[in-house]
Design brief:
The protein is globular, with a radius of gyration of 24 Å. By secondary structure, it is mainly β. It has a 16-stranded antiparallel beta barrel. The chain has helices at 2-17, 21-28, 154-157, 171-176, 308-316, and strands at residues 35-48, 69-73, 77-86, 89-98, 103-109, 115-122, 125-138, 141-149, 182-192, 195-203, 232-240, 246-255, 280-290, 294-305, 334-345, 358-372, 384-397, 400-410, 418-432. The chain starts with a helix and ends with a strand.
Length: 433
């Protein structure tokens, strides 16, 4: 057995040390840039013509005449850094500041006998969205290891603001799945002719973080300094580009989520939780079509959660002690999303190659449901929504977009519809590559 592992280790080291034809060609070009610097960001103002009260669904009749509320936001500001070491080895990082990042301070309060106080001055999140090392053997075979994006669905695989017309990321996928979904794992990917494939091994989701309004959206998060990985999961994606201007894609995910937390419980055979797995299964189809005049894209996602009834019971019965980071709501056994988006370039008549300006008039339709109840739980009508929106995107240059949107979120007749307007400016590009 010892000799076997020694041979395996030597073979692996030899395999990773062999320069590929692609890397040798790249190394021979001494002036080729090896450092990549780029990023993207969004600044937004929106006004919602409906109440933001937490009881607007449970007591909808009380909030029919609400004047609404306005907000400014920086949903994402991202810095991307990459470096090619040669011989097929490269690294990539993506640091994301969501909603302006966080600002905390310690102050000495003279009004309170000189006590020191810690204050949160600005909310937000800072996340390491990507941090990986890659070995490229050829165009069709690449191994990526580290913190990577999970390419399930349309938005996760195309999450920069130049890939959608709406001011915020498309609502349906952003509700029912983590978005952008990123995990620490291993990815095997490559391009072969008109096809691109990707296979990933990842830690499973945490069912303690599932809820009724977002299904598994928060399941990839961790309130701790590490990510529990008692269960492993797999994700896969395949893209086909054999038809001019068209991409067709299938993606999916499967993995257990129950008992994948900081502590595990050994349930006896007599327990109702014995043998529960909380297997999450997602299947997704998405496409996009682009030419000089029109852009059309769409997606269809469906997800299923095994043992949803047991998980809902356990989550609702979790301790309510101070500091508990978990929600106490049920989770649906199924969730789904369908959307279609189309934009027409009003400046397409100008075929001057030197003119990069574009002005899109777009329309979008989303229909999704984050909570299809499991046995023993009642449906919540507000979890199923339709969103109709329209607006414009103006690109003075390819890297900058000015967006304006108006839309209506349509709920079940027992609830109030939610109209809104939003404007934003975005950028996406590379300073060096």
């Amino acid at each position: 057995m010892h000799k076997f592992f020694c041979k395996l280790l030597c073979t692996t080291m030899l395999l990773f040390s062999i320069p590929t034809a692609a890397s040798a060609q790249q190394d021979s070009i001494s002036k080729a840039p090896r450092l990549t610097i780029g990023g993207y960001g969004e600044a937004v103002y929106n006004y919602n013509f409906y109440s933001d009260n937490v009881f607007r669904y449970s007591h909808s009749d009380r909030y029919t005449q609400n004047k609404g509320h306005g907000r400014v936001d920086i949903p994402h500001a991202v810095i991307m850094l990459g470096y090619d070491f040669g011989h097929g080895w490269s690294v990539g990082t993506e640091i994301e500041f969501e909603h302006g990042g966080t600002e905390a301070a310690v102050e000495k309060e003279t009004e309170e006998t000189g006590e020191f106080e810690q204050e949160i001055e600005r909310g937000g999140e800072v996340a390491l969205e990507q941090f990986w090392v890659q070995k490229s053997f050829s165009k069709s075979l690449n191994l990526r290891m580290g913190h990577i994006v999970v390419p399930v669905g349309m938005t996760n695989n195309n999450h920069t603001p130049d890939h959608f017309f709406t001011v915020y990321r498309p609502e349906g996928e952003n509700t029912i799945m983590p978005c952008t979904w990123h995990e620490t794992g291993i990815s095997l990917w490559g391009n072969y002719g008109n096809w691109r494939y990707e296979l990933q091994l990842l830690p499973g989701l945490n069912s303690n973080l599932f809820n009724e309004s977002g299904w598994i959206h928060n399941g990839s998060a961790s309130p701790y300094e590490f990510r529990p990985a008692n269960s492993l999961a797999g994700a896969a994606r395949v893209d086909f580009r054999g038809i001019p201007n068209l991409r067709l894609s299938l993606s999916g995910y499967i993995g257990n989520s129950f008992n994948n937390d900081i502590t595990t419980v050994q349930y006896p055979e007599t327990s109702k939780y014995y043998g529960a797995t909380g297997t999450v299964m997602i299947a997704a189809f998405d496409f996009d079509y682009h030419n000089h005049f029109i852009t059309v894209c769409g997606n269809l996602d469906y997800g299923h959660l095994n043992d949803a009834s047991l998980i809902s019971q356990r989550n609702k019965n979790q301790t309510t002690m101070t500091g508990n980071p978990y929600p106490h709501t049920p989770v649906g056994k199924d969730a789904w999303d369908a959307s279609i988006e189309a934009g027409f370039n009003l400046l397409a008549w100008n075929h001057n190659p030197s003119c990069n300006k574009k002005l899109y008039l777009f329309g979008r339709y989303d229909h999704y449901d984050s909570f299809l109840p499991a046995a023993g739980f009642d449906d919540i009508g507000w979890a199923q929504r339709q969103v109709i929106s329209t607006g414009i995107n103006y690109y003075p240059i390819p890297q900058i977009a000015v967006k304006a949107e108006t839309g209506l979120r349509i709920l079940n007749s027992n609830y109030n519809n939610e109209p809104y307007v939003a404007v934003g400016i975005t950028w996406c590009g590379f300073f060096s590559r």
